[in-house]
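Sequence and structure are kept together here, with a separate record for every protein. An example record follows, reproduced without changes.
>
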Amino acid sequence: MELKKYKLGEILDVTRGASLSGEFYATEGKYIRLTCGNFDYQNNCFKENKSKDNLYYIGDFKPEFLMEEGDIITPLTEQAIGLLGSTAIIPESGKYIQSQDVAKIICKEKLLYKDFAFYLISSTLVKQQLSAAAQQTKIRHTSPDKIRDCTVWIPELTAQKRIGKLLRSLDRKIELNRAINQNLEAMVKQLYDYWFVQFDFPNEEGKPYKSSGGEMVWNEKLKRFIPKGWESTTLGNECQMYQPKTLGLSELDESAKYKVYGANGVIGKYHTYNHENSEIAMACRGNSCGTVNRTAPFSWITGNAMVIKMIDDLIHNEYIKQALQYANIDGAISGSGQPQLTRENLNSIKLCKPTRELIICFSEQVSNIIKMYLQNESNIEGLTRQRDELLPLLVNGQITIE
């Protein structure tokens, strides 16, 4: 396969977004402003930004900054290591405004196929050039000119289409698995909510307890009505909690085998694991304090997360993961400059305790759902690894598709 040398500026255009005044940021509205938080740079795809609540924009802006479905975007500031060069595709027309931290990629259609461009920008070849040219400030940034100045070697258009379609098909399989997992997650949450929040678990006749007139009694410690036979307890009474050894960022290695879970979910990879089973890891430092993550088997949980698991091994850890979503975690957070959760503070968090038989019944029902979830996570990881291994070989012409 013959490759031809170009500057990116010869085969695509790069436009910077609008400068949006902070006085028009809002917590609700019609339009959402794009930020670097919309890039899932670890998976190279678009994500909804949940880090802020004032993402809507109610001021005036030029129509060309309103994004269309299928538009390709790339960040201009590196708010996290590895962000520069990542790409995302806008999922919906007429909803997102391109801000000044986000660049739009516009392909010259006779020279560059759009799907191929998406992977070309996020390839190691381009990422390394952007990183080398990035200005060395506290938060590094690039510019449309620096992106245009990157040198690439690309095949002719027909080969680009074959490569783009293959890589896109792998991404669609990944997206499908993620969508399935979102549904599985929703199923578990709905079941927990129905049984342990609305109190409509099956009674002895299989009917919803509270809706069928099940007796509710006042609990003085919890200051609320709970089903008869239930009790109040604390997190410390029901769970084991500890913080594992902390791994430094210099110890992480993306070529390693095992995932590392920290305060914000997966933060890298390491050569050994410290957990053979899926555990619950709660962020215990920083702004994400109290965030609860489910980990994969054979992974490492690092010390800025607290491992929390049920003492009773007949009760699935998923029960406590769901229960923690409703617990008063904020009341246990201490520290003003650096919020943190300690085991002592977590021990005293109050919980409503259903009958053991009911929790075991819930555990049996969710066990298979979580197995499916974790299997899908493994499938996603395998497909992602396959895509990432193929990407540089295809883009560099080391392998071809007939």
